[in-house]
Amino acid sequence: MLSSGEKLLVIEEQDDVVATVRRDGAELLRGNAADQAVLAAAGLARANRLFVAIPQSFEAGQVCEQARRDNPALPIVARAHSDAEVTHLTRCGATLTIMGEAEIKTSDIGEMLMESLGDLDPVAFVRYASVYKDFKTPADFAAFVAAQMAKDAEGKPE
């Protein structure tokens, strides 16, 4: 993300990870993301997406719940370690929950997020697609939006 010029904010409290974040050039907010004050300071209402990689599923669930309250259309990708955690984090508001031990391509994550967003919030879906799909021209983007509108119209009774 940083290499593409996107802004990245990392919330972390462990010294070794803090050093890595600083070295890699990401913005740092020191603290526990499950702390409501820390999460509020992160500015979730302005966020484009959220990745939750907290190993404790209870705390990760708290982050997902607060993020969903603060920004209902926010794509939230959460890491889980078991099927039960996948269920828990999804119920807490994660758009996409993946098993931490499974390797997954970023393009697959992007596609899954787009599918989830399409059902959750069509406007957020188009906004996300406008960045994720990396359209080369406005005409490419317009064609994509037109195709989505046609799909939506097919699924709706007249």
Layout of helices and strands, plus pairs?
Blueprint: E1 9-12, H1 15-24, E2 27-30, H2 36-41, E3 50-52, H3 57-70, E4 76-80, H4 83-91, E5 96-99, H5 106-120, H6 122-132, H7 138-154
Parallel strand pairs: 1-2, 3-4, 4-5
How would you explain this protein's 3D organization?
- It is built from seven helices and five strands.
- It has 158 residues and is an alpha/beta fold.
- The protein has a domain at 32-125: Rossmann fold (3-Layer(aba) Sandwich), CATH 3.40.50.720.
- Helix 4 links the parallel strand 4 (76-80) and strand 5.
- The chain is globular and about 50 Å long.
- The model has no long low-confidence stretch (mean pLDDT 80).
CATH architecture of the domain at 32-125: 3-Layer(aba) Sandwich
Give start-end ranges of low-pLDDT stretches: none
Helix content: 40-55%
Major β-sheet strand ordering: 3-4-5
Beta-strand content: 5-15%
Arithmetic mean pLDDT: 80
Total helical elements: 7
Could you describe the largest sheet, including whether it forms a barrel?
3 strands, parallel
- DSSP summary, beta strand count: 5
* Level-1 CATH class name of the domain at 32-125: Alpha Beta
Gap between N and C termini: 42 Å
Broad structural category: alpha/beta
Radius of gyration: 17 Å
Globally, the shape reads globular
